[in-house]
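User: Can you model how NAP sits in this protein?
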Amino acid sequence: MSTLPEIPLSRSLGSPLLGDEAGLTISSIGWGMWRLVEARLSAGEIDALVNGVLDAGITLFDTADIYGFNGAGGFGDAETLLGTALGANRALRSRMVLATKGGICPPLPYDQSASYIAQAIDASLKRLNTDRIDLWQLHRPDVLTHPQELARALDDAVAAGKIRTLGVSNFTVPQIDALQHFLGQKLVSTQPEISALRLDCFENGEMDHAMMRGLSVLAWSPLGGGRIATPVSPREHAVAAALDACASEQGISRTLAALSWLMAHPAGIVPIVGSQNPARIAEAAGASAVRWTRAAWYAVYVASRGVPLP
Ligand code: NAP
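Assistant: Here's the modeled complex, given as structure tokens:
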């Protein structure tokens, strides 16, 4: 069993306002279950996969109520698969920090009204076979819900002991601040898409805001959904070549270089590995040992931008 560096969920910067009252720690790499249903694994294979992830030292498990939805049905199916594994092997739950998301409501597409959020949290708890979710995240912003109404529903769920900590995903900086303004507790995380192919967060203020507020940054699709492993466009090939330069120097794979490239950022980005392949997940856990020079890091950044930095 390996150990990854443990980091606080929500980085305390010394201010009492920014303290993480729940005191949770997570591994520096997470594992995501967006693709779990499509992997079509048996119950035994899912148990082995979950154990393999934990044995690799990865404790942050990220799912969502929408995972498994295929446009017609399947809502909740990824949570149900994990919940079934947790029900069959009770020792697993205490080894992980369980994160899920809600607020996408097909075919609407979004609902974050207080009544919807309350029932969505209850439904996730039931499917996941647990009495508490460690990190509950708003999946995408619902512009039709006033943040005060949303904050009250979330505070109620925390007060009822159903949720330990709260986070957001795909929220803009002003949307995060508006929700935080009305919340009775500190948001602990934000989950944007970040990879060597997706640089928006570095340039639109999201990373700076997360560091200022002490939010943990969880990166979704850290390999660009697999395009870093199998580049197609000229831009993707250029990024792959820049990653390969670091990878060959350190004797590692391109994908490991891509994950460690994110982790080298001062916000301490936590990549959520999306592979459902146990060997690839175990390999990903080695990313925290990879080191970057400034020159090599910026070479990847410039390759992705396609134009030199000024
Ligand atoms: P990713 O790590 O960027 O991509 C994973 C995909 O790349 C898998 O299909 C994997 O296939 C493939 N892949 C091909 N070669 C690989 C290699 N050498 N190493 C590793 N993977 C390789 O992540 P993602 O699945 O797109 O997203 C990761 C997680 O982010 C999700 O599970 C979910 O938790 C979260 N997410 C959140 C949002 C949001 O809106 N908040 C949106 C999307 C995703 P194999 O399985 O065959 O290895």
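A couple of observations from the model: Residues 234-250 form the longest helix (17 residues). Confidence is low (pLDDT under 50) at residues 12-20.
User: Helpful, thanks.
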